[in-house]
Amino acid sequence: MASAVALIVIALSLIVPINQPALAAVPAPGPLDAKGKAIDQRFNSDIKPFLTENCFKCHANGKHKGDVTLDAFTSLSAIKADRKGWEDIQDMLQQHSMPPAKEPQPESAKTDAVAAWIDDAFDYFDAGIPRDPGRATIRRLNRNEYTNTIRDLVGVEFRAADGFPADDTGYGFDNIADVLTMSPLLLEKYLAAADKIVDLAIVTQDLSKPNIVRITGAEMEETTSTGPSSNSAKIIYTNGTLFREHEIRLDGEYEIRVKTWGEQAGPDPARMTLKIDKKDVKTYDVTAVSDKPQTCTQRIPLSVGKHRIETAYINNYNNKTSDDPKVKGDRNLVIESVEIEGPMQANGKPAYPESHRRIMIVPAAQGKAGEENARKIIDRFATRAFRRPATPVEISKLLALYTLARTQGDSFEQGIKLALSGVLVSPSFLFRIEQDPPAAAPGTIHNITDYELATRLSYFLWSNMPDDELFRLAGENKLHERAVLEAQIKRMLADWKATYFVGNFAGQWLELRNLEQVTPDKATFPKFDYQLKDSMRREPEAFFLNLVRNDGSVLDLLDCDYTFVNERLAKHYGITGVSGDQFKRVKLDGQHRGGVMTMAGVLTITSMPARTSPVKRGKWVLSALLGAAPPPPPPNVPALVEKKGKTSAANLRQRLEQHRADPTCASCHEKMDGIGFALENFDSVGVWRDKDGNTPVDTSGTLPGGKTFNGPDELKKIILDRKPEFVKNLTSKLMIYALGRGIETSDRATIKEIATATQKNDYKISTLIVGIVKSDQFLKGRTRKGDE
Question: Which residue among 313, 431, 523, 708 has its CA within the 20 to 30 Å range from the CA of 372?
Fold first, then answer.
């Protein structure tokens, strides 16, 4: 009944215009002022001769390779009319991609001067264009945001990633409004989740009587390598645990039942240890197989509060080389479910969970008193869920659900459950919606409300809903004040919730989420395991979090003399004196590391399973650090064929040289391969090597434009020489993530201002973050135009 009524709520409420952001209109060329005339004169005296000498052979006089015709541009006004094309020209010149390597090369100083002139021309164009903040598109909460918001709103753990379909990505991130669609399947998941969440949060049963809570293997978190066995079970591949926190509401004795079986191999059965709060309770021989699971049962006294329930796999076995079928095989443990039943024998007074107390702010009552109390509960909950004051009309609709439940004989608590389920499937909760000011003219630029600002800020820096302080400041209409806003940014970055910003932004920008899909060849790298993979992921997160917390220089991301490691990763790097699972800051003396480019996680995701990939590594540096991603290969060009057996670094270099001999491939590979070769001292999982077998590793490379280098240390110096490109790219990536949309031409001036301010302030990351939050793009919106 609850799901059906909630569906009606969606059908009636989802009357919200979905507006796409429009490109800022480019003003028609007008007469040039004195500054424009000076820039125009430089075009005729300096730029046009350069183009004639170096570019017209392929891009003029009837020739238009790459659909570029340069002799059509005779003035600054003509360039302004095709700004996008000149942005591409500037990128080509800065990357020294043009002229092609086979053609005579102009002096670097002349190439740089042309690129700088284009920048001056763009500055002139931007000075005449109002800062268009763009049109805010309705944006659905992604899975991470939904999970975090439910945790703070309701007070229960619900992992959307375990059941919801994966979010699409755009511009490298999964919080982009245009791609966060709503499918029928996702709608069904939201309906089911709403009922489950309120059932977990609000207690309706008698706590003194036994009840059963069932947790499937798929719903448990892991500390080791796992995979799905079915829709609800989970396989544990190596020694490690599955765990889940469970809240006990009354002191007493509880029975824990684990339904399990093993993929058996070797002389012994799979063994499982049941743990409570990280303490061993009992170890079981799991002799069962898939068609007949066994149930391991244990009674134990538990006190009120949260307890960690763990199932640990303790005797992993893997032998794939033996010819003896009794010995050969891979043993794994499968957990289908964990049930907690109780209390079997109750002691003391029941304790309602924190989630129940958070929601039920007034007691249950009957009649008019019950309706008034229900209104108070619904009003407070909906206001927090909608991230702005709920309207009287919204409250009345939700209260009608409570009334419906009561007229059908349900209890006060059950009526509240139905109303709150309606909140959790409302578009005002599932989507971030920003309304235009009443009676505002089409195309008008306006300040967003403080509630909208609080939402933008909290999902940018926390991937979560605003907290009480942000709500209070928004209600007092103070959040937009510059001093208040800066203080809130500082507070939020110091809060533990900033770890979500680090994981979601840095994890996607640096592509470290791809580690989940990486499986290095076991024969080549037998020591690679889940613990090492997890440590590889956590190193850049700890590094980036330290940068944010201590307001470090963003240039440390390119090169520095420190990193963060735990014992497992320290051994992988050959660093001594580190013990335990906690990450510690260490000095990198003689390690040839420093910065994200030489972290094991990055080096692993940019490798093949059994060998390195100079192409993937070079492409990663260009796209992630410099914002100069090469285009995808043409569809008719075959990929580099993988050969059976081990491929040496020397042979790989020869094969790539042959691949670059094809003119179709050469232009992109000239940019990527040289960078990748400089990182060949690191093997496929990021371990330093001087030799590949008995052959010294060749780490020499050449960039377009002729600059040569050898090894990672010299490569990092070259990248550091391109600081403006790096800071501009990082600013653009952060702005995309903060705004949930791609970069438009109207954003260029703001990005340049923020990047310049960051450079002037010793490259401090706070300058970059504060600059984005205080920008017109973040603080303002634009009303719909007639054609949107």
Answer: 431
